[in-house]
Predict the structure.
Amino acid sequence: MSQLGAMTARRRGHTRRTMEDRVVDAVVYIFIAVVFIVTAYPFWLSIVLAFNEGKDAQYGGIFFWPRKFSLDNFKELIRDSQWGQALGVSVARTVLGTVVTVIGTSVVAYGLSYKQLVGRKVYMALFIFAMYFSGGIIPYYMVLRQIKLLNTFFVYIIPGMINMFYVLVSISFFQEIPGELGESARLDGAGEMSIFLRVMLPISKPLLATLAIFMAVGQWNNWFDTAFFTQNKALRTMAYQLMSVIKKSSLGQANMDAYTSSLAQSSFTTTSIMLAAMLVAVGPILIVYPFFQRYFVTGLTIGSVKG
Amino acid sequence: MTQTHTPVKRGKCASALRMIWRQRSLQLFVLFGVAYLIIFSYIPMMGILMAFKNYKISSGIRGLFTSPWVGMKYFVEFYTDYNFWSIIRNTLVMSLIKMAFTFPLPILLALVLNEVRNVKIKKIVQTTSYLPYFISWVIVVGFAQLFLQFNGVINVMLQRLGVIDKAIPFLTGEKYFLPIAVVTACWKDMGWWAILFLAAITGIDPTLYEAAEIDGAGRLQRIWHITMSGIRGTVTVVLILALGNLLGGGLSGSNFEQAYLIGNDGNNAVSEIVQTYVMKMGLSKGRYPYAAAISLCQSVISVFLVLTSNFVSKKASGNSLF
């Protein structure tokens, strides 16, 4: 980044701005303004609509600010036991799933990152092969069925216990740690386990944070396993509930529901509750995003250095 | 591993054992990973056998070996399925059109962001642009509905401007499915993949720009001859990766989620792709071997695509994954 800053500063110092420069700059700023608005506006619109009275929102024409401000959508969302329970399941799977996957992934990667590991080449080949080839969803389903994970909470946790892509990312991270750190502990007679726990993990916080962010986002957003690997209503997550509402409403089903609920003298509609739920689903990501932004990026760049 | 090749085998063997013992916790870490791989990757790979067998899911993993062979029966059945051509066409059209837009756009965004001289503005726009990557497809499709419903932003706008009198059924109309898929895919992933290209641009030697400037190269010429050629290697590698997952939907592999979430009875004729059909046949209708066979067809094509694009780029530019 600093290199780039220096470069632009130098460029600015050197030259007169030509006609071409001005045109390019104008196009560049218009382009990024469009990108910014197009990216941000859907978020803003959904916030506005979620805080607007649902029945009123049906008439359309709300673009920038709520017309009839109301918190009813959120109140109804909390009151409705279905959504409440789904939120609980989502939180549980996110917390537990993240912890388990971060441990699983970093432990396996640490083992594989040790250059003197006997059999390392064979192990690596097994991992890389599994990254490129898979049996597909149906045989995978067969395995989940056989080991009795279907319709249990653990189907959210155990199959994702090790993330293969992040195993490779973590291996390259661990290998960048200077070898002397481990060696000096080894000379002091420390076992491999305590080297891992006392020496390596404390200096791997950036890696662990990156893993945790990606796993947490993945867990929080996942609706696929709920939809296809469980039938148990008690295991439905926020993401799944939203998915089923959104899938129905694309057919105009929501408009029908809205009509029925308008007869029922309530101010909210299926769509307006869905909006509140969407906000609750996006909220945690929006809130942590500015603070953990750099970890969001490292997830891509650590891996790409190797690739 | 190389130690076993030396002539003094016995001593080496003993020392290897001693080494394994010394690194036993690390070996356990890795063996835990291998056990995981066997269960969740390698047994499913073996499960491909079911596509050639009269397999019942109730017979479990053992049934893979005990059930009778049926040869290519399910593949022939797929080929003669009255949906076959439309599913293949939908899959190919969706994949190719999405690739045509989602691959160049992040490069363009990276080039444009690189030209922004105000560091603060650049940072804000960039950070915003990759936020959608972390939002689930469910939410993205929800956003799209806010814009495209009968009483959504676009219909209301068009009606107020007098362009249309009756709201357009964007969400259920067949001809709108692909545009929606393309636009949402670009919206969601453009900023994220631009990070990669921007990182590559940062690696370009700044003196090249100065030299070009002294030689009288204009801004656009510098963008084209220095920035673009400086990231060519990255572009090639990303293109190989994207082509390898062409049928899955490119870099982020979003075809299934898009087809499943945007698809409905109204646009089914264009939104049914191999992946959604596999789920429908397999997990919804319980025709597991048939679905596995369909899925295998796509996997074979995908592996072929990875190998070919890797080979072609190795020959053409010397860049390759393996």
